[in-house]
Specification:
Layout: H1 2-10, E1 21-22, H2 63-84, E2 93-97, E3 105-107, E4 123-125, H3 142-154, E5 160-164, H4 167-172, E6 193-196, H5 206-216, E7 222-225, E8 229-234, H6 237-261, E9 267-268, H7 272-282, H8 285-303
Parallel strand pairs: 1-9, 6-7
Antiparallel strand pairs: 2-3, 2-5, 3-4, 5-8, 7-8
Helix pairs in contact: 2-6, 2-8, 3-5, 6-8
């Protein structure tokens, strides 16, 4: 296991011949404690009686109520993107599978700033790729449709998909390389990140969408698309957006570390065993849903909840 981690680490981008990469730290073997079978229950603690509990992802008997909840969280996700400064003209899209009609998905309207989007502005796209009468009557991004409808077809496990031209993501994507696992948060990308090492121009054909789906494979939720930017999937839109924003921050961190490494500071890669141990709990889908909730609640406070309408 240790030898494999070291070998894998040596394959990762070194940033040039003068950059030193230390070998991964040895696994700490500190994983002795018996853990709850539900990974979400490992990350929080209540009282002994069990009356104080952390809420997980809600479930709905009424699919129309679930649709309303999804649209609210989707609109909040766009607002967060706007707050993070991810807007780049008309580029960028989030799609979420509709619970009422699972072969349909919700999408943002073309050319509307992320910071202005409300739940009522979201467009419901049919399986034929055209705007339906069930949502806002507004056009959608063609490249976004081509990419996302392919991903929703190829990855039925993915409820949500997100892509935009965030600055640090598209900067690191110029290298066509994965990020290193050098900090605890980055462990969420252990065995969960692919790289599409090609650029076929603006995505206007199903073939390019299929190429990206091939790069993601059957399990990875995150992808760095060379010369383009970041793409993430999720079992909820909250997980999808948390992963996207974390990957953006990790790309920024990677760029800063590479600059420091050029001055002789060696990089230390987390051992694969420890990264996998951390990812198993912190990377659980319900845990990642909860990681986005502080931002969602803050957005409601800051905006008076106007995006929920």
């Amino acid at each position: 296991m240790v030898e494999s981690a070291i070998a894998n680490a040596k394959l990762i981008l070194r940033g040039g011949p003068d950059v030193q990469v230390s070998e991964p730290v040895q696994p700490q073997n500190s994983h002795k404690r018996d853990l709850d079978s539900n990974p979400f229950n490992r990350v929080w603690r209540g009282d002994k009686k069990g009356s104080i509990r952390m809420p997980g992802v809600p479930t709905f008997e009424d699919k129309h109520e679930e649709r309303k909840w999804i649209k609210a969280h989707m609109a909040g996700s766009f607002r967060y993107w706007g707050k993070m400064g991810f807007g780049e003209g008309t580029a960028g899209h989030i799609t979420v599978r509709d619970p009422v009609m699972p072969d349909h998905y919700w999408m943002n309207p073309f050319g509307m700033h992320f910071s202005l989007i409300k739940a009522s502005d979201l467009v419901l796209v049919g399986p034929d790729g055209y705007v339906t009468e069930h949502g806002a009557q507004l056009p959608i991004n063609e490249a976004g449709y081509v990419l996302h409808h392919t991903l929703h077809q190829r990855r039925p496990d993915a409820v949500a998909a997100a892509h935009c031209h965030s600055f640090y993501g598209k900067t690191w994507a110029a290298f066509g390389k994965p990020i290193d696992i050098m900090q605890q948060d980055a462990c969420l990308f252990h065995n969960n990140l692919s790289t599409y090492s090609n650029y076929g121009g603006i995505i206007l054909s199903d073939q390019e969408g299929n190429n990206i789906a091939d790069a993601l494979g059957e399990k990875a939720l995150c992808c760095i698309m060379q010369n383009h930017g970041l793409l993430t999937l999720g079992r909820t839109v909250d997980e999808c957006i948390y992963l996207f924003c974390l990957l953006e921050k990790t790309c920024k961190q990677q760029l800063v570390i590479e600059a420091a490494a050029k001055n002789g500071l060696p990089k230390t890669i987390i051992a694969a065993e420890d990264a996998a141990y951390t990812q198993a709990s912190n990377g659980y889908w319900e845990t990642m849903y909860n990681n986005f909730q502080p931002e969602f609640e803050l957005l409601k406070k800051e905006t008076g909840g106007d995006f929920l309408l």
